[in-house]
UniProtKB/TrEMBL annotation:
The name this protein goes by in its record: Uncharacterized protein
Residues passing through the membrane, by range: none
CDD domains: PGDH (cd05288)
InterPro entries according to UniProt: ADH-like_C (IPR013149), ADH_N_2 (IPR041694), ER (IPR020843), GroES-like_sf (IPR011032), MDR_fam (IPR045010), NAD(P)-bd_dom_sf (IPR036291)
Amino acid sequence: MTKYSAKQWFVKERSGDNINVEETFELVTKELSTDDLKEGDLFLKAHFFSNDPTQRIWVNKDSVKERLYRAPIEKGDLMETYGIYEVIESRRTGYENGDFVLARAFWADYCILTPIDLTIDPGATLTKIMGDPTDFLTLGITGITAYFGLLTVGAATSKDSTVVVSVAAGATGSVVCQIAKNVLGIKNVVGIAGSDAKCELLKKSCGCDYALNYRSPTFKRDFEEATKDDIDVYFDNVGGEILDMALLRMKEYGRIVSCGAISMYDDMKGGKASAGISREAWSQVYCHKVRIEGFIVIQFADQLPKALADLVPWLMEGKIHLIKEIWDARIEDVPQGMLKLFKGENTGKLITKVIHS
């Protein structure tokens, strides 16, 4: 029997607008023992956590349970995350002590993952990994999101001439840009980001023909210039005003991929967010027969091998490369990653490396 003093983050109170981590989360120390394991359980040690915008929705008190793609995390529950964990003790067939896994688990330095936990995202909850764990965390979640979003939902092909991507310097957007330019050979790839430095990265590292800073006073004019031939595919990660602008520039039978709406996640009641789409813009949906489709990447879980069979060679051939930012954090500081993400402080995939004392 081995005992561990585990530090685990629980949801103290589901938050409203403008999340306050001190009010939303509570750190609890619990004693865990490998003797606590039952058949099918895994005792895990955390090494890396993924930071994803969707986690904000999971704990937003204004999220309507029946309308979410998954149940929200309730008050008193462990805060969930995707992460890279080491198997300390296994009672699950096929997993050995010392294995590293990509798991849908918790903000905790040590935790027990049960068979019930593994039913949250069937087919996407637990995967053995090899190689650089941060590459796997980046390619295995956001890379696959970019792949299915652009190629399946957006139905992008080499025949398209203009692809626009918002939050283009983020985890998913940066891969979308590279697939569009370096795999499909799209003539005009337009990336939108929130700083001049990120725009420079989009041009140098992601192949963007235009990189637009939405904070620039000339952004609207720059956007019109970059999309003068109109848009075949708009990959939307932000919603709001930029979605409105894109709708006004869509080609006939253009496609909008709704991957996220990070500009709205702190306003789930719809006060600010609902003001983003104008009547003029929405009329373009029927006037130009524009298709808007949302998706959740786990719906493609059964096609994961196909995606990796394409993505891994593209990575090896240099057609795509993974842009990631890793920050070291004690378990006590882990919630700060959510704030970094929503402040736009990261470039590419934001990964928390858990420092064990």
